Amino acid sequence: MMSYIEKKYLRKIYDTFDELTRIDEKLLELIEYRSINKADEIAKSLANLNKKINLILRQYYPEIKEMDEKLKIKSRLKFYYDLLDKLTDFIRNVENFRKLDDRYYQFLIDFIHEKEDLINNKYKGIATRELTSFYDKKSRDNLEKILESKLKLRDREYFTFGGLEQELKKISGVESLVIKSADPHHKEILDSAETIIIIKTQESFEKGDLYFVLNKLKRFLESKGYEVETTQNYIITNIKLFID
């Protein structure tokens, strides 16, 4: 039986999901203009979306113990993680290319229209596997071993921003990298996430080139003993970065 606190925060989560629905409806309306002139408005809605997701993750979700509810929440959040990722890519492409193929707009429109189907048929399965793995005793034991090994590596877990950026730029062959602190939703992809590394691409840069560079950097960081996950557009890693 749910406690009073759990019920209270569950209501807050679903109220926030209602707000998120209004935001993605607004995003859909803006994207349907198929115009880069709407990029600033999309970016503002995207920032609001990210703020609401972080509110759920930081304040509400940790209080939920009921597994069925955790599954529903996690499944819906996974849709929004992907939406954030895709629209962040959209904003970056607007900055880099200033003109986008109509098929790109249609891809984003279809993604939002298919939200409920994606949640039920894709993200629910992913969330189920993740929750099952997390609460499985063997997985917890393995996690403890990983954490223990990470403590032994702590002395080499820190880089200065400039030194690492230059090394990664040299390996990747690109002109500019953006290195930022990971947000809570990145920890849903990599539990130990500390940093995201975004590649600033040129107009001539193809998607295949980006995929190659991301995987090249991933292999390099993994060879140094760091945990790394890649998305379509950036790297998530457990390296801790400090600006000189």
Structure description:
It is globular and about 55 Å long. Mean pLDDT is 80; it is low at 150-162. It folds into two domains: 4-135; 151-242. The chain has helices at 4-31, 39-60, 67-97, 102-113, 115-135, 137-152, 161-172, 207-223; strands at residues 158-160, 176-181, 195-200, 228-230, 234-237, 240-242. 65% of the residues lie in helices and 10% in strands. The protein contains eight helices and six strands. Strand 4 and strand 5 (234-237) form a beta hairpin. Helix 2 packs antiparallel against helix 3. The protein is of the alpha+beta class. Strands 2-3-5-4 form a four-stranded antiparallel beta sheet, with helices on one face.
* Sheet with most strands: strand arrangement: 2-3-5-4
Largest sheet: 4 strands, antiparallel
Query: Using DSSP, what is the number of strands?
Result: 6
Structural class: alpha+beta
Q: State the domain count.
A: 2
**Poorly predicted tracts of residues:** 150-162
Shape type: globular
Mean pLDDT: 80
| Span between termini | 51 Å
SS field, number of helical segments:
8
Strand content: 5-15%
* Element order: H for helix, E for strand: HHHHHHEHEEHEEE
Rounded to an integer in angstroms, the radius of gyration calculated over CA atoms is: 19 Å
Helix proportion range: 55-70%
